[in-house]
Design brief:
Length: about 200
């Protein structure tokens, strides 16, 4: 498969560095890597890298994380945005905190080219705003959230809101409605768990 065909197929693009080799190979799709592992030309100890990952890691480690990410895209989320959100939040939460869901904004605002994601863990709601350079991550503990709201915007989109006390409300607009409904459902469960 040529690099052009790989890029057109979408999804993450991986480079590999086999143990003992000097030069990396790629780009490869996830399917390519799985095929190479199945036929024995690639080992779980060989190194892999994809844009935004930060450093080369053993394939076994990355695909363990990638398996975790794959269950967040059931509602049509952009896999690359989910991977970025998962990585950013994973860098700030402890091992005892679990990421349950990542929702990705369907489109940026009219005046902005940035995207937002909502990440739900068992301890926080994170709102990640993509900036021109890097990301801004806003964290809210479940115990500080007084309520969560959802609103249907029409055309398959919705707004997810969290209320912080009586005064502050944080809205994330233009999320696919299916994702807003899932955020709201999980929020109710997490809020209830935080009270127990």
């Amino acid at each position: 498969m040529s690099a052009v065909e790989t890029e057109e197929s979408g999804g993450l693009q991986f480079s590999i560095l086999k143990r003992g080799a000097r030069d990396p190979e790629g780009p490869f799709s996830e399917g390519d890597l799985l095929s190479m592992m199945n036929d024995g030309t690639l080992s779980v100890a060989d190194l892999v890298y994809y844009e935004g990952m930060g450093e080369w890691k053993p394939i076994g480690e990355v695909f363990e994380v990638h398996e975790q990410i794959s269950h967040f895209v059931d509602d049509g989320q952009d896999t690359e945005k989910v991977a970025l959100a998962f990585r950013e939040v994973g860098n700030v939460v402890g091992n005892s905190e679990n990421i349950y869901y990542v929702a990705v904004q369907a489109k940026a605002g009219l005046l902005s080219k940035t995207m937002q994601c909502v990440i739900i863990t068992d301890k926080h709601v994170f709102i990640m705003q993509e900036k021109r350079v890097g990301f801004e991550l806003e964290a809210h503990l479940w115990k500080d959230i007084t309520n969560t709201l959802m609103r249907d915007e029409g055309k398959g989109l919705g707004t997810y809101s969290i209320l912080l006390g009586a005064e502050k409300r944080v809205d994330v607009l233009h999320l696919p409605l299916k994702q807003v409904q899932r955020l709201f459902q999980l929020s109710q469960e997490m809020k209830q768990d935080s009270l127990n």
